[in-house]
Amino acid sequence: MSNRPLSSVLPNPEQGEANKAAQVQDMFNRIAGTYDSLNTCISMGFHKQWKKLACQKLQLPAGGAVLDICTGTGDLIDLLLPLVGPTGQVEGLDFSEKMLAVARHRLARHPNVTLVQGDALALPYPDNTFDGAIISFGLRNVTSIPQALAEMQRVIKPGGRMVNLDTCPTPKLPGMAFYFSKIMPIIGGLFAQDPQAYRYLSESTLHFLTPSELKAAFEQAGCVQVESQTLMLGSVSLQVGQKPL
Ligand SMILES: C[S@@+](CC[C@H](N)C(=O)[O-])C[C@H]1O[C@@H](n2cnc3c(N)ncnc32)[C@H](O)[C@@H]1O
């Protein structure tokens, strides 16, 4: 696994590492109102396609139950709902109350969606609860990737799949590193009035695990048949693994 100092990438470096989770929570509370529109702007609209593909990788049964970890504003839930159908259940978990407030507003008319405030590192569910679990653009924010993956694996049923979608630190798209480090904070400063938050989001990408390191992390969490791929010329990575039967 990478020895890059992931935990030292902080939304607010002056506050030190001890309260990284609280800093991340505070940052997402601050940017919740502009998160969706800025996401579309920064990814040039491509994030919906990546998310759709990631949801399909779960191979959910109709009527199944699925968990979206670090659900944020819940836009992935819009894509999961048609996969499980009207008798299925979608659970979204996040620790930012403000991000969840946007999700609650978005998903109010769906009785089969439950939104929960909780920690990705200590999921409030029994073992073997869900047919699948997904984390999208969340894993690079948690303080322990192995613990987050172990928790995901614990709550899915044997044979269930878990998926990670996130940015990739080794893009092959020319200019991408420049875009992450220089352009994103400017966009974040202009539209979210929060260049610090978007500086963190860029830096956390550049310090994040590579696709092969993530594949190894899935295997260490106990997954089998782990597959890893990149999208958009290596700007985004996607992993899928199965809990052994
Ligand atoms: C970049 S957003 C991703 C939102 C959404 N999944 C998406 O794909 O657009 C990351 C989310 O992870 C949440 N988060 C980060 N660490 C967390 C943790 N330890 N437990 C729960 N949520 C966490 C943040 O509050 C934020 O809403």
Gist of the model:
A seven-stranded mixed sheet has the order 3-2-1-4-5-7-6, sandwiched between helices. It has 245 residues and is α/β, with parallel strands linked by helices.
Query: Which strand-content bin applies to the residues?
Result: 15-25%
Class by SSE composition? alpha/beta
Estimate the mean pLDDT confidence.
Answer: 90
Order of helices and strands: HHEHEHEEHEHHHEE
Number of extended strands: 7
Distance between the termini: 26 Å
Largest sheet: 7 strands, mixed
- Which CATH C-level class is it? Alpha Beta
What's the tally of helices? 8
User: CATH homologous superfamily - what is it?
Assistant: Vaccinia Virus protein VP39
- Write down the CATH topology: Rossmann fold
Read across the widest sheet, the strand sequence of neighbours is: 3-2-1-4-5-7-6
Catalogue the unreliable spans.
none
Q: What are the bound molecules?
A: S-adenosylmethionine
